[in-house]
Design goal:
- There is one protein chain.
- It is built from 22 helices and 26 strands.
Length: about 775
């Protein structure tokens, strides 16, 4: 037996042995993810054939390192249920890919199959959960880990191995179209959700990736893509290194600690150096400081963009590989690595290091022993029967109640409801970007779900207007419906819904100038103004003049500036893009079958001109003001109401002072809190702990989230919860950019939002 095929040997030995047998061309082939996966097959009725494009790529390199998006189905790939791969056919096609490689290559190295799953698997029949901004609103990492585990199982049973998920982006400017892909504005919350994603996808570190229930997490984007100038995707992130470490690295630190097998470099630059070309970021920080030993994947055609610096594909490939990028994505540059070596631009040993990481991953997945997936399969084998219920739970917990003048839950006596707005009866507007084609009837709109949940009421639907178009032709019908109703529900906001007629950039981003009128969010759809688009605000004002009880639903991928809507509505529910079960979740919440428990993971501004409005700004020792508008957000980070009321207080802190030495030795500080449900219904509340430094060596932040816990309480129930704090929770990135303990006073705030006012003081000496 060839040594590298003998699993009794350690992975490192197997990798070294295989590497010695490979030609330079075969090595380069392992670093290339050049093809769009959906171009590798053709569907004929119920049969599939591999394309010459795929076969030629295999022949060119003697194999394929990785294949992106084999199962992807959306307007960019042009794949639907007619010509794409559904769940039951997936193992068949995945096995064809692996079988062809095994039979037509010298070394028979299996391919890694990578798939998009930013909020569920972007494939036919894939589970669609709320976009990350909604998942972040759950403040429930345990729930998210559970649903991510189900998604991992789906993807692995279909034959893929890697899941690309956007966990690292911190949204500092909501004009950014990809705000929906982030867990919000806070690094600690995002880090906890990143940890949940990795553990859900991969299991714990003690578990084996060869399990057929796990996939490898590829975390994106590294780093600071959420701080692009002007909120524009891929724009420079004009931040300092302390901001990088303080705000944008904690997620990757958590992901690395949890064992993430991969991460994707970001498009943006930091202080003049593109992330794909930054040895400081990808080697010094990522590998040395954070201890990451996985694979770094390039973002789509990002390496080719380095040509503006290097002048050639060969030099761009060399720059990226030396910086720490291991695996390409659709670019030309990495196909020129062999030429770069022959031109003495690159030492082959640099290629060997990257190839070793790719091969290590393949051995850890057990692909050399078992590259094929069981077939045929049933839909129950892929989609766990309980996944739908879990997804509904995530959707319910993602909803954030922003305002309620005792109108919600709806009184059962209300029998005539007008449901108005562009998002009231639109399935795809609830699903967000990176969403696959859906089967007819699989997803219920808000209108459909509310009809089913409240059959005794008469619900009259009227669109009223679009998301962005300027037509008011629908106003007359909408206002007539509102006039005749006992109550109005306004479903407005935005949409990331892609259309099969739009055009895309090489990396799949929508090209803004070519889009239909009703899309204003998602990749490529950054905006300059956070007001609701089109004539939605005029529709809201027209409804307001009728003086009808009004409930507002914000279906959105970013926070909009909705001060006018907040004033016009008696209740306001932030729904984000709530996923496939979102319609039912919203209906159940309106009717009181679900008690809202979501908390904002990002501040909602009053106006675009306020930006930035994130809560953890620097404390300059005085309140800073605009002359013409307040600096406070409309709704702050961490905020969210319930149908019940909670009483929260700090009981005690275990230490009023502690020495640096004690903390270095592992001693802890305990803050005991108590919470009581003083309302009439059961519900969940999030206890939030914030830190504020006094006498720091650097300018502190006004507040920093350092811990939280979501708890469920019945009426009159009271419980205690103790926060445990150690060295990691009290360190500071000092003036020398070292993460150290310093003598200082820390004020710890406890509350149910970033406006928390109860505090205790701790002295570190």
């Amino acid at each position: 037996m060839t040594l590298f095929l003998d699993k009794s040997y350690p992975t490192k030995i197997r990798v070294e042995h295989l590497l010695k047998q490979m030609t330079l061309k075969e090595k380069v082939g392992q670093l290339n993810q050049h093809l769009y996966g959906w171009q590798c097959y053709k569907k004929y009725d119920s049969t599939f054939e591999l394309t010459n494009l795929f076969k030629n790529e295999v022949a060119k390199w003697g194999g394929i390192g990785a294949l992106y998006g084999l199962f992807r189905a959306d307007p960019w790939s042009k794949k639907t249920y007619k010509n794409g791969i559904n769940a039951l056919d997936s193992p068949k096609v995945a096995n064809k890919i692996q079988d062809y490689i095994e039979k037509h290559t010298r070394l028979k190295i299996p391919a890694l199959l990578s798939e998009e799953c930013p909020h569920g698997h972007q494939a036919l029949d894939g589970t669609v959960i709320p976009t990350n901004i909604g998942s972040g609103s759950t403040w429930n990492p345990e729930l998210m880990q559970d649903i991510y585990s189900d998604i991992a199982r789906e993807i692995r049973k279909r034959g893929a191995h890697l899941g690309l998920i956007s966990t690292l982006d911190i949204a500092r400017d909501p004009r950014w179209g990809r705000t929906e892909e982030s867990f919000g504005e806070d690094p600690y919350l995002a880090a906890k959700m990143t940890e949940a994603a990795v553990k859900g996808f991969q299991g714990t570190l003690s578990e084996n990736l060869s399990s057929m229930h796990q996939i490898g997490a590829v975390l994106k984007h590294f780093s600071a893509q959420g701080s692009g100038e002007g909120g524009i995707n891929a724009a420079p992130a004009s931040i300092g290194l302390r901001e990088l470490h303080d705000i944008h690295l904690p997620g990757m630190k958590a992901g690395s600690k949890a064992g993430a097998v991969g991460c994707m470099a970001a498009y943006n630059e930091i202080d003049g150096i593109p992330c794909h070309a930054s040895e400081y970021l990808l080697n010094d920080v990522l590998r040395k400081q954070l201890g990451f030993n996985g694979v770094v994947m390039a973002d789509g055609v990002a390496i080719d963009r380095l040509n503006i610096l290097t002048g050639s594909f060969e030099k761009s490939a060399t720059t990226a590989l030396k910086a720490g990028v291991d695996l390409s994505l659709w670019d030309t540059s990495f196909t020129r690595l062999e030429d770069a070596v022959k031109a003495h631009l690159l030492d082959e040993r640099v290629i060997d290091k990257a190839v070793s990481r790719i091969l290590t991953l393949k051995f850890e997945f057990g692909l050399f022993e078992s590259r094929y997936i069981d077939e045929p399969i049933s839909i129950e084998t892929v989609i766990h029967p309980k996944t739908k219920d879990k997804n509904l739970k995530v959707a319910e917990e993602s909803l954030v109640l922003l305002k309620n003048n005792a109108i919600l839950p709806l009184n059962p006596s209300i029998k005539n409801i007008a449901l108005i707005g562009p998002n009231a009866d639109s399935v795809y507007n609830m699903l967000g970007d990176y969403t696959a084609t859906q089967q007819d009837g699989k997803v219920k709109s808000i209108y459909e779900a509310l009809q089913m949940a409240n059959p005794k009421a008469t619900i009259t639907y009227s669109k009223g207007c679009g998301i962005l178009d300027q037509s008011k032709d629908g106003f007359t019908e909408a206002l007539a419906a509102a006039e005749a109703a006992d109550l109005v529900i306004l479903a407005v906001g935005g949409s990331s819904s892609r259309d099969f007629n739009i055009t895309f950039d090489k990396n799949g981003a929508a090209l803004p100038n070519d889009q239909p009128v009703d899309m204003d969010c998602g990749e490529g759809m950054d905006v300059a103004d956070l007001r609701l688009g089109g004539v939605q605000e005029e529709l809201i004002e027209a409804i307001k003049k009728l003086n009808k009880p009004t409930v507002g639903l914000l279906v959105q991928g970013r926070p909009y500036a909705v001060e006018g809507m907040s004033t016009a509505c008696d209740a306001l529910l932030c729904c984000w893009y709530p996923g496939a079960e979102g319609g039912e979740a919203i209906a159940r919440t309106l009717l009181g079958h679900n008690v809202p428990s979501g908390k904002l993971p990002i501040s909602i501004p009053r106006s675009t001109s306020q930006l930035p409005v994130y809560y953890n700004k620097k404390d300059l020792g005085q309140q800073l003001h605009y002359h013409d508008i307040t600096t406070s957000p409309l709704y702050p980070f961490g905020y969210g109401l319930s149908y019940t009321t909670f009483k929260l207080r700090i009981d005690e802190i275990s230490n009023e002072s502690i020495s640096i030495r004690e903390l270095e030795q592992g001693n802890k500080v305990f803050i005991k809190t108590s919470i009581e449900n003083i309302g009439k219904v059961s519900g969940s509340e999030v206890i939030q702990l914030y830190r504020h430094d006094q006498q720091s060596s650097i300018t502190p932040r006004i507040k920093e989230l350092k811990a939280f816990k979501k708890v469920f309480l019945k009426p009159s129930e009271k419980i205690t919860y103790t926060f445990t704090l150690g060295k990691e929770d009290m360190c500071t990135w000092n003036k020398d950019l070292a993460y150290v303990l310093e003598p200082k006073r820390i004020e710890w705030y406890v509350g149910n939002s970033s406006l928390a006012s109860q505090s205790v003081l701790l002295t570190i000496y």
